[in-house]
Amino acid sequence: MRKLIQHGSSSTVPASGKVPGHDSAIGHVTGRAAYIDDLPGPAGMRHLAVGLSPHASARILHMDLSEVRCQPGVIDVITAADIPGHNEVGAVYPGDPLLAEDEVRYAGQMVFAVVADTLFNARCAVTHARIDYELQTPALDPVASIEAGLTVLPQHMHERPLPAPALDRGAAMSEDTQTSGHVDQALQAAPHVLEGEQCIGGQEHFYLEGQIAQAERLDDDGLRVLTSSQHPSEVQKLVAEVLGIPLHGIVAEVRRMGGGFGGKESQAAALGAMAALAAHRNGCAIRFRLPRADDMQATGKRHPFHNRYRVGFDDSGRLMGADITLIGNCGHSPDLSEGVVDRAMFHADNAYYLGHARVTGHRAMTHTASNTAFRGFGGPQGMMPIEGAMDDIARTLGLDPLDVRKRNLYDAERCETHYGQQIDQPLIGELIETLEASSDYRARRREITAFNAKSPVIRKGLALTPVKFGISFTARHLNQAGALLMIYTDGSVLVNHGGTEMGQGLHTKVCQVVARELGIAYHRVRISATRTDKVPNTSPTAASSGADLNAMAARNAAITLRERLMDFAAQWQTLPRERLTLEEDGLTAGEARIEWSELIQQAYLARVPLSAIGFYATPEIHYDRQTGRGRPFYYYAWGAAVSEVHVDTLTGEYRVARVDILHDVGESLNPAIDRGQIEGGFIQGMGWLTTEELKWDDQGHLLTTGPATYKIPACGDAPRDFRVALLEGHPNSQATIYRSKAVGEPPLMLAISVWSALRDAVASLADDRSSPRLDTPATPERVLMACEAVRKARLHNAPRPQEETAHVLSAK
Amino acid sequence: MLSLTLNGQRHCLNDLPAATTALSLLRGHLGACGTKEGCASGDCGACTIAIGTRNDRGELHYHSANACILPAHQLHGCHVLTVEGLARKESLHPVQQAMIEHHGSQCGFCTSGIVMSLFCLDNERRRLGMNGPPDDDTIDAALGGNLCRCTGYRAIRDAARAMHTLPRPTMDEPDDLPPASGAITNGFHHPESRHALIEILTQHPRARLIAGGTDLMLEHTLALKPLPELIDLSGVAELAHIDEQADGWWIGAGVTYHRLAPLLADHYPAFHALLERLGSLQIRHRATLAGNIANASPIGDTPPILMALGARLRLDGAQGMRELPIDDFFTGYRSTALNEGEYLDAVYLPRLQDREQLLAWKISKRRDDDISAVMLALRISMGEEGQLNDVRVACGGMAATPKRARHVEAALEGQVLNDETLDNACRALAEDFSPIDDVRASRDYRLAAVAGLLARARHRLTSRHDAIPMTLEEI
């Protein structure tokens, strides 16, 4: 018999009570954690750079790349004509050619590729292309596009029929239904109606590690693609389609990403496909890294939205009806915009019962990069109108915005959304009560009102805003996951699953779950790179679902192995099967105990299979797009934040002084990681709404192509007083992994409190009776202009100055 | 040949082109890939390294710098530490340990840069015998040039506060290398004296002058220019001095912002406050006042202040030295009074007289490490009756060059600062400037914001020091 690895007899359980940190933390702080660009390339590896379209909309008349070919170090030049399979890398619908063919549809679109010995040489060679374009007038205004019928997909609408039925919800909603008398009736009957309009800016992901892929040919004509992608299975699929070879010839692999945030869900595939194509043609390994400016021009961003709202309410501020229109600027192609605008619509209520509601979503086409997934996936943009409306209502009625918000929250009675889903765990009322007290909201409100009354220049603002976020992919088939679990003869365990690690700590959580199911020490479990040849047909790591899906799949695999081991142990030692447990690195049965390592070695010798797959599909969810009704979400995650801002009303500069957050993660899988997600999500959301401004010129060229002009929050922007707590005592009512809740996206929307607080500070210039329009990002410039507008309105002596876009239409 | 010590190990390299960055030296030539490229423009800090040099007392101290825009040849003779060099076998450096314990990394891509910035902070504080945790301002300043997209910074701040509690590791004292020899290496010239500098300038009139390189190097990393001939000012002995005179200071062209900071803190608090928002600490460790002037950007932060102060410039070259007021230096968008073969030798800062005050403010989208949308700088002498005398006002971001606001000055000169004076000054702004819309701000905002800053100046100069804060800093 071959000798098995020797093992010590004592179990090595780590000190309890301490949650494990990120599985790569040591690698991060020592520089040993490698990203794709850090890897020593295979011998003979070449580098690829792409030529980008300088025009937003043009026909390509003639391409002369002869000069490019003779530049130093150049090995190959590739155009669309060189693609053996499909020239298409669209994620859901076609519309995204890998390389432009006859036309370009945005400035920054990839037109041709150059392979050279170094990246610098490839980039230099790109500049020698001579391409003749026939320019066309680009469509750049999404509202004008909608008016002209330029969409990437048809519009879609959610409507609550009147009277609100219990369960039979016929065909009250369809894509073509433009009106129903009910919402309009409700608005007509309301004592007060107001309307508003807002432009919500997009957001660049600004993952610190830019987009990158590396491809190499394998000896059996297959290809291995290392990709910084949230969706390796899609990279595998699109590489196969571009090359015209079957999926089993491609292995896509992701060890870690230097940030993703949605920007590497669909957008990474083009890089994988391009590198694979070049490797296929040239027989050498190819690395394709987009320099930052190219990355920012070529890849899509968070959708900018143009929102309109009309709400009816009673004297107490309670909503009676809402008519909300959301126009998403999708860029030039559909990409993921169907789901993004759907999710914006699903979140138009945020945490409020809207009454009779009509929500209409439009998908505008513009000649810009195709906008894509970004943490929240349309949800944040969809919530902005109703949060703006809450503040507007409060200022119209002279109430504290918090009171208006509280009066409209979902509760045990009013718990059906405008798309017909029943909310079975409306935690928000209790959560807000707790936060209101812990943040000392009322006393601070009084102090701030007193401060503002005496302060001519500096104004303070305060706002508490809630978040309700639906968890599940709205595309039902994506709600599945697989895992592969292997136990080796020394008792060490290797897990592989379909989720990818982009910093969110998914691998750590999955290892924790496996260790818990097998009753072994955390350090015995290790995770390997995500690979499409280990777990097939995986879903993107997106929609906050990474742990919900993959940890559950890994758990199912662990349960299979655990049961197998117990069956074996019961037989081997003739122990009572029902009394066996796996805990503290061993199997116990009353007094009897078998150490884990011993158990595994004996199981191996007894020819018990020590690997298993696990699978999970989220139960119960369904949604009918035709009717706009169903249960798209397995459950909701809740949270609320109180932000205090200080504004210099002479210059528009401001600081976020204090933030209190209470957030619901059910039973936390890892409080340290969850807190990191909450804080990071909040600051990222704050950046979206404050300093992160994307600008294009009137020809559709992106002007903000690097961190010199595109400003994500720096350390000094984070509030110094930042109090974050997890909601305790409310396990998920649904049977998720250990009753936890997803945490990736929901906290981003807590940052709406910063925007609302800025409006609050500006409104103080008119004694809180004017509701200033404040488009986002609310840069110092926009804040100053809002101050000036409010001051001007006040100067004109209106007893109740109303800013132009928050009209009170009727006050009966 | 370029010789340096990287993490205690000596390396000698030949044939590095002049414009090679320290980052490509590390990642490409030396295989040290812990240091990352996030932007190649010195804005994100993922490439932060620590550069060790000896001070006058022979102590080795480290400063942080952005490797992505640092010319590799400037590392000649230096001790370079990167993230790979901090741990001693399995024993992590306290900075690394604190980052792990406080969950300071998520995706990890910015982490090596953050670790190096914190290392420099920790090292400096231990060297100076500072035992407690750094305060919030110190932490934010140390990390102002390190962007993290994942954590929201709270965890990193906690790590920064905790690192001093962990035992200090024994850092190896590396053997010293010979200093830069004055040799020419592949087009990178290291003159050590003014004389040598002028000689090289005469021989290579097309060569570009480089000190910190924090702007010039972007032409290579972003615009892909080869920059075949570079003349390094950072080793020229005469340019490294701050020369105190009876009524001011000559600041040599090789003096970095970091070295200038204590003088500004003592004599020009408004300038010093602004300096803390100029670039990042990594940038201020390398960049120079003279570089900010010579590159003639319309949005350079210091020229408006220097104009308000009435600074003078000393230009030097084969034709001899000459002086001119900074007002006469900027001749158009990115063009200057420098003749071919001439260089900016030193900047003269006049000492503020008894009744003189300098006010200066910058407005940008983000507080730290951002380029100004607008700058206002104002120097006045306050008369007995509160009237303003000898008013000098200059703005940045309002025209194609940094520019004096002569109409505003006229509106303020001899006046007491009241509503009427302020209104007149704000109206005069539109006569002085016709700013443009661009990526940083609109025309309207530029005008409104500078008017707001004039109002702030009025509050500052006339306030009765009651309890009402007039700026965000006063809260």
TrEMBL record, chain A:
PANTHER family in alphabetical order: ALDEHYDE OXIDASE 1-RELATED (PTHR11908:SF132), XANTHINE DEHYDROGENASE (PTHR11908)
Pfam families for the chain: Ald_Xan_dh_C, MoCoBD_1, MoCoBD_2
Family of the protein in this entry: Belongs to the xanthine dehydrogenase family.
Cofactors, names only: [2Fe-2S] cluster; FAD; Mo-molybdopterin; Mo-molybdopterin cytosine dinucleotide
Lineage top rank: taxon: Bacteria
Protein name: Xanthine dehydrogenase molybdopterin binding subunit
InterPro entries registered for this protein in UniProt: Ald_Oxase/Xan_DH_a/b (IPR000674), Ald_Oxase/Xan_DH_a/b_sf (IPR036856), Ald_Oxase/xanthine_DH-like (IPR016208), AldOxase/xan_DH_MoCoBD1 (IPR008274), AldOxase/xan_DH_MoCoBD2 (IPR046867), AldOxase/xan_DH_Mopterin-bd_sf (IPR037165), Xanthine_DH_Mopterin-bd_su (IPR014309)
Species per Swiss-Prot/TrEMBL record: Kushneria konosiri
From TrEMBL, chain B:
Molecular functions per Gene Ontology: 2 iron, 2 sulfur cluster binding; FAD binding; iron ion binding; xanthine dehydrogenase activity
Identification of the protein by name: Xanthine dehydrogenase small subunit
Keyword Iron (UniProt): yes
Keywords for the protein's UniProt record, in alphabetical order: FAD, Flavoprotein, Iron, Metal-binding
Organism of this sequence: Kushneria konosiri
PANTHER family membership: XANTHINE DEHYDROGENASE
PROSITE patterns: 2FE2S_FER_1, FAD_PCMH
Cross-referenced InterPro entries: 2Fe-2S-bd, 2Fe-2S-bd_dom_sf, 2Fe-2S_ferredoxin-like_sf, 2Fe2S_fd_BS, Ald_Oxase/xanthine_DH-like, Beta-grasp_dom_sf, CO_DH_flav_C, CO_DH_flav_C_dom_sf
Domain FAD-binding PCMH-type: 181-354
Protein origin, superkingdom: Bacteria
